[in-house]
Specification:
The chain has helices at residues 2-8, 69-85, 105-112, 116-121, 132-141, and strands at residues 17-22, 41-46, 51-58, 93-101, 124-126. It has 143 residues and is an alpha/beta fold. It has one domain. It has a five-stranded mixed sheet with strand order 1-2-3-4-5, with helices on both faces. Helix 2 (69-85) links the parallel strand 3 (51-58) and strand 4. 24% of the residues are buried. The mean pLDDT is 89.
Length: 143
């Protein structure tokens, strides 16, 4: 879905460099603040004015509560971003975290008792939504 989006929206990336890195489990970049959370992927977008570093986890969520630290990491990472800002220099670094869930939207709505709008505020998108990657990029680049 990421490749399809990048190819279809080449104009979005005209002045940007896009890198997708695989994060090594248990030895790569992890976050103690989120219960030793090791995101599977790091998406780095470098623009003339900012750098966007986004941590992405493809994960089924049927048995994960919406209060789980991995789900709440979208807020925690903003605290890290603020601490990093004092050392970032002239080119700010924007941090984000997303979960791209294989669990169907309807199943998460039933399990978490929230609609897709509230779920997406937590940066949790479901892969049964054909616009999930587009929504993620819009959120990344507009923060």
């Amino acid at each position: 879905m990421l490749i399809d989006y990048a190819e279809a929206k080449r104009d979005v990336f005209d002045d940007k460099s896009l890198f997708l890195l695989r994060n090594k489990s248990k030895v790569g970049m992890g976050f103690f603040e989120a219960g030793n959370f090791y995101p599977d992927f790091i998406l780095w977008i470098d623009t003339p004015k900012s750098q966007y570093v986004t941590f992405i986890v493809p994960k089924g969520l049927l048995n994960i509560p919406k209060e789980d630290p991995k789900i709440q990491f979208h807020k925690t990472i903003k605290d890290l971003e603020n601490r990093l800002a004092v050392t970032a220099g002239e080119k700010p670094i924007v941090l984000n975290s997303f979960i791209m869930s294989s669990t169907k939207s309807s199943d998460l709505k039933e399990r978490w008792c929230i609609d897709h709008i509230e779920r997406e505020k937590k940066n949790v998108y479901t892969l049964d939504d054909s616009k999930s990657v587009e929504k993620m990029f819009e959120k990344i680049l507009n923060t």
